Amino acid sequence: xxxxxxxxxxxxxxxxxxxxxxxxxxxxxxxxxxxxxxxxxxxxxxxxxxxxxxxxxxxxxxxxxxxxxxxxxxxxxxxxxxxxxxxxxxxxxxxxxxxxxxxxxxxxxxxxxxxxxxxxxxxxxxxxxxxxxxxxxxxxxxxxxxxxxxxxxxxxxxxxxxxxxxxxxxxxxxxxxxxxxxxxxxxxxxxxxxxxxxxxxxxxxxxxxxxxxxxxxxxxxxxxxxxxxxxxxxxxxxxxxxxxxxxxxxxxxxxxxxxxxxxxxxxxxxxxxxxxxxxxxxxxxxxxxxxxxxxxxxxxxxxxxxxxxxxxxxxxxxxxxxxxxxxxxxxxxxxxxxxxxxxxxxxxxxxxxxxxxxxxxxxxxx
Length: 366
Fold this sequence. Notes:
Protein name: Ribosome biogenesis GTPase YqeH
Order of helices and strands: HHEHEHEHEHEEHEEEEEHHEEEEE
Low-confidence stretches: none
Number of domains: 3
Helix content: 10-25%
Mean pLDDT: 88
Distance between the termini: 58 Å
CATH class of the largest domain: Alpha Beta
CATH architecture of the largest domain: 3-Layer(aba) Sandwich
Shape: globular
Organism: Gracilibacillus pellucidus
Largest sheet: 6 strands, mixed
């Protein structure tokens, strides 16, 4: 019998083992299209079943691209650039040209300097050892920025296959769905969800008689906050509308809590503004630094939420990182959450984030 592949996630269909990827009941083989039980439950009940693939399995699949002559489209989450970046991508994809896509641009405040963001993305990608041909900002959900991206892909691929790669939860499948919808009018061709790890194999989308676009499995990056968060909490910390900044005037020795996921301590410096860019649903609390430890222990999961109790059980403990902010307007980026703009700089702050999450500094985008 010819092999059959799930039209939702790309994995090979099988009818023997319910616990393994690609399972369908034998009676479902007559369906058109055929989707595995995992995709069926994801589509109809928004449930995600674990599968036996490891992080290394995903990386081995992506490494197959290095043996091809193709164009690579790398999708990152603008709100989690560091966490959604695939380390060693140049090695995994060989000598193929790479276009970098920053997704979710529609959620940025309209005052964001997009040219500055593009230059920062190019510079940071280079620091990670990745040489990119071009950088584009898009909204996969709304189709914003796709005219330029479509034209660039067509020119750069020059008759070659296209592989779309990215970490879990960056909107990679939504990006491809948008491309397919614009060219063919087919909506939601690929299974999408809030949850990491939806695509389990290469999904082939024909571009013409000889070439195709491939949706690839989302690479799991354990630095992403998303891997420690329940679906309920993820919906709170993931922006869905344009972010409305919240401004706090802080004296030194004051603290801001971002739900119970992160904390900023103003250690040293003159009073100034801290502009916070996070999901509009995430609650921010201010308190005195001397009370901050006790406040967190007493209120995390309650007044300081999310995280919910279920997330707290699996989330690493908060770890302190102290940084001196330069004498210029600077963003402190908390991967997976958002960022804080320090208006003047020349101060010392401590950021508390779950162990393994790495904060970064950049020139202010706004």
